[in-house]
Amino acid sequence: MKRIALTVLVLSCLGFAAQAQTTIDRVRMTDNDLSCQQAYNEIGQMDGVLARSRQPVAAVGAQVDPNAAQNAAVAGAVAQAAIANAAARGGFGFGGFGGGFGGGGSVGGLFGSLVQQAAAQGAQQAATDQAAAAATTQQNAMLAQQAQGRKEHLTSLFLGKGCKMSEIVK
Protein backbone atom coordinates (compact mmCIF):
# COMPACT_ATOMS: atom_id res chain seq x y z
CA MET A 1 0.00 0.00 0.00
CA LYS A 2 2.89 2.33 0.79
CA ARG A 3 4.39 1.58 -2.62
CA ILE A 4 1.18 2.59 -4.37
CA ALA A 5 1.08 5.86 -2.45
CA LEU A 6 4.73 6.45 -3.34
CA THR A 7 4.01 5.73 -7.01
CA VAL A 8 1.12 8.20 -7.05
CA LEU A 9 3.32 10.81 -5.36
CA VAL A 10 6.16 10.31 -7.86
CA LEU A 11 3.82 10.54 -10.84
CA SER A 12 2.15 13.69 -9.52
CA CYS A 13 5.58 15.28 -8.91
CA LEU A 14 6.57 14.41 -12.47
CA GLY A 15 3.42 16.14 -13.68
CA PHE A 16 4.26 19.28 -11.72
CA ALA A 17 7.86 19.14 -12.96
CA ALA A 18 6.64 18.90 -16.54
CA GLN A 19 4.43 21.95 -16.01
CA ALA A 20 7.27 23.86 -14.34
CA GLN A 21 9.66 23.01 -17.19
CA THR A 22 11.09 26.05 -18.90
CA THR A 23 9.64 26.61 -22.33
CA ILE A 24 11.51 27.96 -25.31
CA ASP A 25 9.76 30.87 -26.96
CA ARG A 26 9.83 30.79 -30.74
CA VAL A 27 9.86 34.59 -31.03
CA ARG A 28 10.98 37.09 -28.42
CA MET A 29 10.29 40.81 -28.39
CA THR A 30 14.04 41.49 -28.27
CA ASP A 31 14.93 39.37 -31.31
CA ASN A 32 15.28 42.39 -33.62
CA ASP A 33 17.97 43.77 -31.31
CA LEU A 34 20.18 40.69 -31.72
CA SER A 35 23.43 41.14 -33.60
CA CYS A 36 24.49 38.59 -36.20
CA GLN A 37 26.93 37.04 -33.70
CA GLN A 38 24.26 36.81 -30.99
CA ALA A 39 21.78 35.18 -33.37
CA TYR A 40 24.44 32.69 -34.46
CA ASN A 41 25.33 31.88 -30.84
CA GLU A 42 21.69 31.31 -29.95
CA ILE A 43 21.27 29.03 -32.98
CA GLY A 44 24.17 27.02 -31.52
CA GLN A 45 22.38 26.84 -28.17
CA MET A 46 19.26 25.49 -29.89
CA ASP A 47 21.42 22.88 -31.64
CA GLY A 48 22.67 21.83 -28.20
CA VAL A 49 19.13 21.51 -26.85
CA LEU A 50 18.18 19.42 -29.88
CA ALA A 51 21.19 17.15 -29.42
CA ARG A 52 20.43 16.59 -25.72
CA SER A 53 16.78 15.89 -26.38
CA ARG A 54 17.63 13.20 -28.95
CA GLN A 55 19.74 11.21 -26.52
CA PRO A 56 18.04 8.09 -25.15
CA VAL A 57 16.42 8.39 -21.76
CA ALA A 58 18.45 6.60 -19.11
CA ALA A 59 16.59 4.06 -17.04
CA VAL A 60 15.47 5.48 -13.72
CA GLY A 61 16.17 2.28 -11.80
CA ALA A 62 17.89 -0.95 -12.55
CA GLN A 63 16.87 -2.71 -15.73
CA VAL A 64 13.91 -4.89 -14.83
CA ASP A 65 12.92 -8.03 -16.66
CA PRO A 66 9.32 -7.59 -17.85
CA ASN A 67 8.62 -11.17 -16.73
CA ALA A 68 10.28 -10.72 -13.34
CA ALA A 69 7.03 -10.80 -11.38
CA GLN A 70 5.88 -13.99 -13.08
CA ASN A 71 9.31 -15.63 -12.72
CA ALA A 72 9.45 -14.72 -9.03
CA ALA A 73 5.95 -16.11 -8.46
CA VAL A 74 6.95 -19.39 -10.11
CA ALA A 75 10.16 -19.50 -8.06
CA GLY A 76 8.15 -18.83 -4.92
CA ALA A 77 5.74 -21.64 -5.71
CA VAL A 78 8.62 -24.04 -6.40
CA ALA A 79 10.37 -23.03 -3.18
CA GLN A 80 7.16 -23.41 -1.23
CA ALA A 81 6.58 -26.88 -2.69
CA ALA A 82 10.17 -27.92 -1.93
CA ILE A 83 9.90 -26.71 1.65
CA ALA A 84 6.57 -28.43 2.14
CA ASN A 85 8.03 -31.64 0.67
CA ALA A 86 11.04 -31.45 3.01
CA ALA A 87 8.76 -30.81 5.98
CA ALA A 88 6.62 -33.81 5.10
CA ARG A 89 9.70 -36.06 4.94
CA GLY A 90 10.80 -35.22 8.41
CA GLY A 91 12.04 -31.69 8.58
CA PHE A 92 15.12 -29.70 7.81
CA GLY A 93 17.73 -31.68 9.71
CA PHE A 94 21.39 -31.56 8.73
CA GLY A 95 22.40 -34.66 6.77
CA GLY A 96 19.33 -36.51 7.95
CA PHE A 97 19.98 -35.70 11.61
CA GLY A 98 17.68 -33.67 13.76
CA GLY A 99 13.97 -33.18 13.77
CA GLY A 100 13.97 -29.92 11.86
CA PHE A 101 12.16 -26.72 12.56
CA GLY A 102 8.78 -28.16 13.36
CA GLY A 103 5.83 -26.63 11.59
CA GLY A 104 7.72 -26.68 8.30
CA GLY A 105 4.56 -25.89 6.33
CA SER A 106 4.34 -22.46 7.90
CA VAL A 107 7.99 -21.83 7.01
CA GLY A 108 7.19 -22.66 3.38
CA GLY A 109 4.24 -20.30 3.48
CA LEU A 110 6.47 -17.58 4.91
CA PHE A 111 9.09 -17.99 2.17
CA GLY A 112 6.42 -18.13 -0.53
CA SER A 113 4.75 -14.96 0.70
CA LEU A 114 8.10 -13.16 0.95
CA VAL A 115 8.96 -14.09 -2.63
CA GLN A 116 5.53 -13.01 -3.87
CA GLN A 117 5.80 -9.71 -1.97
CA ALA A 118 9.22 -9.06 -3.49
CA ALA A 119 7.84 -9.81 -6.95
CA ALA A 120 4.95 -7.39 -6.43
CA GLN A 121 7.33 -4.65 -5.27
CA GLY A 122 9.56 -5.28 -8.30
CA ALA A 123 6.58 -4.95 -10.63
CA GLN A 124 5.48 -1.70 -8.97
CA GLN A 125 9.02 -0.31 -9.23
CA ALA A 126 9.16 -1.26 -12.91
CA ALA A 127 5.86 0.54 -13.52
CA THR A 128 7.14 3.65 -11.73
CA ASP A 129 10.38 3.58 -13.73
CA GLN A 130 8.47 3.22 -17.01
CA ALA A 131 6.18 6.13 -16.14
CA ALA A 132 9.15 8.36 -15.27
CA ALA A 133 10.94 7.41 -18.50
CA ALA A 134 7.78 8.13 -20.50
CA ALA A 135 7.39 11.55 -18.85
CA THR A 136 11.03 12.40 -19.56
CA THR A 137 10.68 11.30 -23.18
CA GLN A 138 7.57 13.42 -23.61
CA GLN A 139 9.32 16.41 -22.02
CA ASN A 140 12.34 15.97 -24.32
CA ALA A 141 10.09 15.82 -27.37
CA MET A 142 8.35 19.03 -26.33
CA LEU A 143 11.67 20.84 -25.80
CA ALA A 144 13.00 19.56 -29.12
CA GLN A 145 9.96 20.90 -30.95
CA GLN A 146 10.30 24.30 -29.27
CA ALA A 147 14.05 24.45 -29.91
CA GLN A 148 13.54 23.57 -33.57
CA GLY A 149 10.97 26.37 -33.94
CA ARG A 150 13.28 28.88 -32.26
CA LYS A 151 16.21 27.77 -34.42
CA GLU A 152 14.16 28.22 -37.61
CA HIS A 153 13.10 31.71 -36.49
CA LEU A 154 16.67 32.71 -35.62
CA THR A 155 17.96 31.35 -38.93
CA SER A 156 15.44 33.40 -40.89
CA LEU A 157 16.33 36.44 -38.76
CA PHE A 158 20.05 35.81 -39.39
CA LEU A 159 19.53 35.59 -43.14
CA GLY A 160 17.01 38.45 -43.21
CA LYS A 161 19.54 40.82 -41.62
CA GLY A 162 22.05 39.96 -44.32
CA CYS A 163 24.44 38.27 -41.89
CA LYS A 164 27.34 36.37 -43.39
CA MET A 165 29.13 33.35 -41.96
CA SER A 166 32.46 34.94 -42.89
CA GLU A 167 31.73 37.69 -40.30
CA ILE A 168 30.95 35.25 -37.49
CA VAL A 169 33.53 34.35 -34.84
CA LYS A 170 33.20 30.66 -34.13
Beta-strand percent range: under 5%
Number of domains: 1
Number of helices, counting only DSSP H or I runs of 4 residues or more:
4
Strand tally: 0
Order of helices and strands: HHHH
What would your notes on this structure say?
With 170 residues, the protein is mainly α. The chain has one domain (2-91, 101-164). 68% of the residues lie in helices and 0% in strands. The chain has helices at residues 2-20, 36-54, 68-88, 104-160. Helix 1 packs parallel to helix 4 and helix 3 (68-88) runs antiparallel to helix 4. It is rod-shaped. The two termini are 57 Å apart. Mean pLDDT is 74; it is low at 5-20 and 93-104.
Looking at this protein, list some descriptive labels:
mainly alpha, 4 helices, 68% helix, 0% strand
Write the layout of secondary structure elements.
Blueprint: H1 2-20, H2 36-54, H3 68-88, H4 104-160
Helix pairs in contact: 1-4, 2-4, 3-4
Short account of what is shown:
The protein has 170 residues and is mainly alpha-helical. Helix content is 68%, strand content 0%.
